[in-house]
Amino acid sequence: MRSPTSILSARSLFALGALHHIGAHASPSINVALRASFSPAPYLVELLETAAEENATAYYPILDRVSQGYFEEYATEQQLYNAFLDLLHHDGHIIEPEALSSFEFALSVRSAAPRIEAHYQFYKTSVEPSLAAEQTDACDIWVSFHGKQYCSPQLDEPFGGIESERTYELPFDRTLGNSSALPAILYADITAPQFKTWHSTLSGTAKTGKTSYRIRHKPSQKASHTPLVVNGYGVELQLKRTDYIVIDDRQKEEGETSGQKPFGTGLDEDEEVADLKPLSKDEVSNLGLKAASFIMESDQPMDTLLKLVQDFPKYSSIIANYNASESFLQEHKSNRELLLPTGFNMIWVNGVQIPNRDVNPYSLLAHLRRERSLINGIRSQGLSAPDVVALLSHEAISATQTEDEPQRYDFRDEIEGGNVIVYMNNIEKDSRYGSWPTELRALLQRTFPGQLPAVRRDIHNAIIPVDFTSMDDVTSVVDTIMSLVKRGIPVRWGLVPQTQTDGAVQQAKVIYYLQDTYGLSGMINYLQASLESRTLAVPDKAAFASAVKDGKLRNERVALEFAEVLESVAVQERVDGAKQYLKRLAADVPNPPIFVNGVPIAQTDEWLSSLSQRIGMDLRQIQKGVYEGVFNDESWVPQYFLFQAATRRNSLIVPENENNITLVNMADFEESHGNVFSKMPRIKAAESASKSDWAHVTLLADIDSTPGLTLLKSLAAYREENPNVELVLIHNAQADSQLSSASEDLLKRNTNPGRELTSEALSALVAEKPNFRTPLEENTMFWKSAEPILEAFDLKPGQHAIVVNGRRVGPIPDEQIFTKEDIESLISYEISKRMQPLSQALSELDLTSKLSGPFDLAKIQSLVTLSTISDVPEGIFESASTLRVSTFNKWTAEKTAIIKGDREKAVFQIIASIDPATELAQKWVPILRTLSDMEGVHLKLFLNPKQTLQELPVKRFYRYLLDARPTFNEDGSVGSLEAQFSGIPKEALLNLGMDVPPSWLVAPEKSIHDLDNIKLSTLPVDTNINAIYGLESILIEGHSRDITNGGQPPSGAEVVLETEKDPHYADTIIMANLGYFQFKTNPGFYNIKLKSGRSQEIFNLDSAGPKGWTPQSGDETTEIALMSFQGATIFPRLSRKPGQETADVLTPEESLASELVGKGTEKVNKFLGKLGLNFNSQKVLDKGAELIGSKSATKGTQADINIFSVASGHLYERMLNIMMLSVMKHTKHTVKFWFIEQFLSPSFKSFLPHMAAEYGFEYELVTYKWPHWLRSQTEKQREIWGYKILFLDVLFPLDLEKVIFVDADQIVRTDMYELVTHDLEGAPYGFTPMGDSRTEMEGFRFWKTGYWSSFLRGRPYHISALYVVDLVKFRQLAAGDRLRQQYHSLSADPNSLSNLDQDLPNNMQFNLPIHSLPQEWLWCETWCSDEDLAKAKTIDLCNNPMTKEPKLDRARRQIPEWNVYDEEVGALARRVKGEKAKEEDVVDVQAEEQIRDKKKKDEERKRDEL
Q: Can you supply one Gene Ontology CC term for this chain's record (predicted)?
């Protein structure tokens, strides 16, 4: 798994400490390493930063030791490491075994290296440009103080000024002292000798409170300049040829064996296998079961599992000859009946499922640290680690997460005396429902999907608060709701008038009167007349008269005049009732919620969809109840929804989105503020109160103000009736408060000797009349000591809040009265949601005795609740739930599980379900094995093979590079891990690939071999394949939203990443897909901004959202720090500028030119009409904007011709060179080639600069990481096809206007500038239709039959070998978003998009038009006749399915100039290589394989002829 040697240079890279000795005649090995784009820091800096990741408080004490010379005597990195471990233990910084193990694991994967590199990048790109003075060696270490640069610790004379300095705390800063004090920022290499003096001086002033002290690492002069070698990734050798992959359809004969080693001799990794043989269907069918049983029968199951999964194809025939044991099969079957189907791979850590995306060392390390913090927080309350895990995953707690029953409210108007709700229909009485059945069992009738069963019963109720002065609200009533009623939707609709303005009150009176006196029709007629006359602001007398005139007076009703209605006492009573109703349900606000069966639903544009979903879920509950006999035909069904409904609603208590509650970690709070908090006035819970009923409540309020005192009275009244509550009181005075009353009285009662504050004393205090006076100095200081507590709860002076067991409710607005009933509702809600399940779990686990008081419960409660909450919204990541489960504890582990570690001592209980016959197991098993080597880990790995297999499950060899702790070389330097493959079948055709963490972009950097086409039999004796890959970039990913537009993605907005040194470091466009964007960069400090132009005109960038999706205090910044191998995910918030609320960023500014080009005839005619030019513009459109307008954007500095291509493998790269040469031979225009970097070989990339210099073109390597949310491709060729079409809007810089894709195997015979200037007639891209003139190929023209024939309906099917893209139009149409959406939908079917890069645009051409290029733009012998060749502008060497002729043979036969170009490029290559040419000659495996395929095809044809 690892090598003890380090990578010192390119030549010594592969002096691997092999797992076995490779002799002179051993089979060749394949060796791979990966290095970062930056160098490692001095090891002491890395040790320090890694330790601070585990314990931030250790940072400055360790630096004190550094400045004392503690590490001076240690010369090697290994000595430093050992001394550092001793220091951590001796000084008590990291003493827990699991924390120390985490530290070692973090060091092994170099997790702190990006953070240090971020310091270095910040210094080079932000600090150095801001220094006024020229830097010298005399100022190697310096301090920033008061905007000046000082080069001596005594701060004698400033060396120079500092412009635009960032003295505020940056994400990678660690601060000593009071952060609000004057900052002294030291820029230093801590390994430099002079650091000692600097540190002792500056830390001393910080400790006395004079300054705050920060160290920002400066690049070290002693640091290594060789790139950092990284690990924590996988390397795969994918089998390319189908001989082994395709199953032999012949049945295995009885007694026949595969000819390979029989079971009993184990798995010998050194054994040489010439080639892989196909297995029969019978052998493949139960291969997974046999493999799992084989593993469990071995002496060392974990070692066997690892060996088997990493070389599965090699050992599959051995496994096929083994029979699974009956005991394994029986236990496996019984476990599957309890949980999880066969073949599922899954990992749980302490009951939480780990998403597949997060099964990598860096995400797991972060997860384990969070878990350890959580476990330790609860463990500090006296529970053991196993107790804590059992508590967190207890069924009572997990049930609260799985319950999707929301808080309901009593939507009836009985509390207000009735007659408040204006019902639009009555399902049980109205004649339109007369034909419907009344029996509840009719609810079980079959209906179309989404349709509600028609039953004449009152079941579903929707109550809508309506402002009858609002055009939108009234339109919704008249059009939407009445339409739903008329269509017979079985929902009862009710309206309650809003009365927030005088006009609304008057309109409510008219509505109530008309509905009561003339019925629903009279009310609707009035509203329609008012809408038509647009007189809704106040009641319209004319509309009233019209409604009365046409209306029919109801029985026993008296007609009133218009003025009498407005003065009517009876009508006023109904209006008063409406006010009380809406106030009770907290709906007396702008944009109130709708109540659907008592559930509040936000009134957004999607309210009907939300209502439909809610009713659908409720219907299923009712249907279940009917089926089970819970309801009978006498039941009033809505009572089911009202059973636990609250009568009052307070949105502070239960927000519409219940995830929007604010939680505080009370264990951390106590650690930081426990001393002060313990001195605050409190009323203890009664000793007689049961522990299961305990609650801890803290009031933070300005109790000298009227609202604060009212809040205190409510709490006092509640506490008097509930002795189980411990109540803590903290006064939060206004900033300018001079007088006090209740706060003084409270302290007076609280500090009386020998008298505790009691509930009775508090009730007496709040009953007294306020007596304002100047507070005593000691009392002012007492309350001032609580300011850090108020800051911890994010409260400003004078604000009020209540904290219940760690849940903060507030700030509570002064105008909102929080009554005793509200307190009861809050605590009842918390009891049902959180407190009662926790109490039940503690009781059932017999842990209640560990609690000494309500505050202990509050600490545990807050930690348990925090562990269940994720900040990432659903859909953005394929994240698993935070739900903890324990069902797997019922699995039997005797015959099917591998167990490692001590469960009683474990902080991390890892349960894994692994199917050994899967490619996922190849990655997960080595990771799990490494984790199991760490302290504090208990692993139980269950083998869960799939019952039956239809195809060979694993088609690759695999190595994962990971270790639990650092290793060192013989010279004491840090060791590196490299992948080594030995014993690989020599005849297998392989493709080398990298399986890296989601945020990494890697590309091959050094290798003379074709890594896409490896065949070991072609290598000379004693030759290995060596490859170095580069970690080119780490991603900054973003999911942005337009907060003005309800959080919709601001698709099309353009964003720029900048540094102080480079204001336009990178740019990209925001996708409609989840508001996604990405920047490819490396660790450092950056700023994100909107690109100038349309994006800046429409939007403001309010925040980069670096702290998470939910806005947080202090995140109003556009700065980003990338300081982790995990990358960075940000959630930018954009808002629209005034007047731009409906502007489309994808639509250019309206000038006459842009109207003509982009808007179409109708809008242009209107535009010209504004100018008084009344004529048809069609002729003008034909001419375009060139006649009367100019381009709105200035053309950038890009070349005249921009050609984009991609190649994989040395053969196609050879043809790519020839394609480039053919382009250059036919043009005098400037040319730039664009290539997708990760698919190019190191050989091609090293030769490219010489080609560019020889022929005078520019080139750029581009790339884009396949987004995590977009369905990926596993086969490399299909991945390449995806890159050709899916990311055209984001692959290139935003100033590139047009790009041409040309396949690598093409020859150009024309000036490609013709295609640049070709008119695409408004289409975003142009493709050439498939050739139709070679008649003998008719049977192969798939697009003329079946699906494509019926789909295209006469339109051409286009080939993707050549196409031109108008990137401006492409982005304006959001074509990239639309292509990705369609791809994601179609690719769910693995059989669709067989030719992805062609099928997708052709499938979309009815919605995303393709301009058909003239046929001469692409000629291909397979589809086009020989006669057409003379006119061809490009020639493509597309495959011939009939002959399988190799491409090189065809090129030489068909294209005379091809050989000339090939020789010309070859001559250049020889000049560049010089004498190395012969040494580095390698066999072109790809070309040989094409010849092999041709021979095979010829042999098949001969057999057929015979």
A: endoplasmic reticulum lumen
For residue 1190 the two structure tokens come to 């100019």
> What is the reported pLDDT for 15?
31
| Residue recorded with tokens 């640091």 | 223
Contact 352, 375 (CB under 8 A): no
C-alpha distance from residue 1074 to each of 317, 877, 1047, 1267, 1272 (Å): 46, 10, 10, 11, 17
Instruction: Write the DSSP symbol of residue 753.
Output: T
Phi and psi angles of residue 1141, each rounded to the nearest 5 degrees, phi first: -60, -30
Amino acid at 1119: E
pLDDT score at 595:
93
Tokens of 502: 């005088």
How do strand 233-239 and strand 346-349 relate by DSSP bridges?
Answer: unpaired
Structure confidence at residue 21 (pLDDT): 31
Using CB atoms within 10 Å of the CB of residue 1389, give its burial: 0 to 12 exposed, 13 to 18 middle, 19+ buried. Answer: exposed
Beta-strand relationship, 801-804 and 182-188? unpaired
> CB atoms < 10 A from the CB of 409, how many?
23
- The structure's pTM equals 0.82
Instruction: Give the whole-angstrom CA distance, residue 2 versus residue 960.
Output: 9
Residue 534 is which amino acid? Answer: R
User: Which residue ranges of the chain lie beneath pLDDT 50?
Assistant: 1-25, 246-265, 754, 1150-1196, 1475-1479
pLDDT of residue 264: 40
Cβ-based neighbours of 435, under 8 Å, separated by 6 or more:
none
- Output the pLDDT for position 870: 67
Residue 374 CA to residue 367 CA, distance in Å, equals: 11
**Residues 6 or more apart whose Cβ sits within 8 Å of residue 1259:** 1232, 1233, 1234, 1235, 1248, 1252
Opening angle at CA 1484, ends 1483 and 1488, nearest 5:
105
Instruction: Enumerate residues 6+ apart whose C-beta is below 8 A from 1066.
Output: 1056, 1057, 1079, 1080, 1081
Contact by Cβ (8 Å): 756, 685: no
Task: Give the pLDDT score at 1111.
Answer: 81
Q: What is the pLDDT of residue 197?
A: 92
| Both tokens assigned to 913 | 């379900």
The structure tokens listed for 1269 are: 């949310």
Q: Spell out the alpha helix ranges (H) of 68-111.
A: 77-90, 97-108
Query: What are the E-state strand segments in 705-791?
Result: 725-731
Nearest to 56 by CA among 85, 86, 99, 97: 99
Cα separation, 1086 vs 1119, in Å, equals 6
Q: Which domains does the chain have, with CATH numbers?
A: 1-37+228-247+966-1030 (no CATH), 43-217 (no CATH), 422-642 (3.40.30.10), 662-839 (3.40.30.10), 1040-1136 (2.60.40.10), 1152-1183 (no CATH), 1201-1486 (3.90.550.10)
Name the helix (H) or strand (E) containing 628. Answer: none
pLDDT at 652: 85
Q: Provide the pLDDT for residue 17.
A: 30
Q: Of 1478, 1028, 1484, 1026, which Cα lies nearest the Cα of 22? A: 1026
1494 and 1446 Cβ atoms separated by less than 8 Å: yes
Question: CB–CB of 1330/1337 below 8 Å?
Answer: no
User: Each residue of 584-632: pLDDT tens digit?
Assistant: 888 888 888 889 988 888 887 677 878 888 888 888 888 888 887 877 7
CA distance 234 to 358: 14
Q: 543-547 long-range contacts, Cβ below 8 Å, gap at least 24?
A: 544/510, 544/514, 547/514, 547/518, 547/522, 547/523
User: In 733-824, at which residue ranges do the beta strands (DSSP E only) sit?
Assistant: 801-804, 807-809
Edge-to-edge strand list for the sheet holding 1419-1420 = 1306-1308, 1434-1436, 1419-1420
